[in-house]
Design brief:
Layout: H1 4-25, H2 57-92, H3 95-110, H4 113-123, H5 128-155, H6 158-165, H7 170-206, H8 218-225, H9 234-261, H10 263-268
Helix pairs in contact: 1-2, 1-9, 2-3, 2-5, 2-7, 2-9, 3-5, 4-5, 5-7, 7-8, 7-9, 8-9
């Protein structure tokens, strides 16, 4: 039962990952094909029907899964790399530099992701790269603050004092003591950030700040389907269900990883 949460999350998220992987190998119709007729109901030959332009909805959902995972994983990789590096610097810095970094991180965390995305789109065109950059930068501040706290907690331990007294270099302290002790918590946090990144990408695409057509983002599918939701509800329900499935699945995985990484939680459960 302790592993049920982790298994459930893997099933939900794994189904979306499988759809994304299959989309690279096979698609029911070309993404730009509009020969299906406007707002066709679910059935054959279009399993989920078509949108207002005549495009196959199942094809659009498969491509949307690819984009959601691509933006989510890219944002987590960028945010994790920048955040861990900044957190390590703050954790080992002098007090005035540490306080300065802490203030900067608090400002960045308070800065809305959507506003940051708008600024980036004003400089660059709306694209997949702009979405990854905006979400990754916003995420890096959260990861950096957590890393800073974890690093300071580890550096306060007696074995770190002993290692420094024995002449161990700072590089070895980081690689042999600090990172091995903070990575379980960081992995859980990054898993949670992946779910938030998927929601952020859907929000950006809904506002027209995500990947442009012919990329079929779930957020843009929701935006396009809202005018015909009473006539063809599948166009709005299907992408919404996939967004919820992926985010819930990732959050369950994060909760399961927390149980695995923290023995005290395993005992209390």
């Amino acid at each position: 039962m302790r592993r049920l949460t982790l298994v459930s999350g893997c099933v939900l998220a794994g189904a979306v990952v499988a759809i994304a992987v299959v989309s690279f190998l096979w698609l029911p119709y070309p993404p730009e094909d509009t020969s299906g007729g406007r707002l066709a109901p679910p059935g054959l030959p279009h399993l989920l029907g078509t949108d207002k332009l005549g495009r196959d909805l199942f094809t659009q959902l498969m491509i949307g899964a690819r984009i959601a995972l691509g933006v989510g994983l890219g944002s987590v990789a960028l945010g994790g790399l920048l955040g861990v590096a900044a957190g390590l610097v703050a954790g080992f810095a002098t007090r005035w530099l540490d306080d300065t970094v802490a203030v900067v991180l608090d400002i960045l965390i308070a800065f809305p992701t959507l506003l940051l995305a708008m600024l980036l789109v004003a400089v660059r065109d709306a694209s997949l790269g702009s979405a990854i950059l905006a979400i990754g930068l916003a995420m890096s501040a959260v990861v950096a603050r957590l890393t800073r706290v974890l690093v300071k907690r580890v550096l306060a331990q007696d074995y770190i004092t002993a290692a420094r007294t024995s002449g161990t270099s700072w590089r070895r302290i980081v690689t042999e003591h600090v990172l091995p002790n903070i990575w379980p918590t960081l992995v859980v946090n990054l898993a949670l950030q992946l779910g938030l990144a998927v929601l952020a990408e859907a929000s950006l695409s809904y506002l027209g700040l995500g990947p442009p057509p012919p990329n079929a983002s779930w957020g843009r599918m929701l935006q396009e389907a809202q005018a015909t939701v009473l006539v063809a509800p599948v166009g709005a329900i299907a992408p919404g269900v996939l967004v919820v499935a992926l985010v819930v699945g990732v959050n369950l995985i994060a909760d399961g990883l927390r149980d695995v990484a923290d023995p005290t939680r395993r005992r209390t459960r």
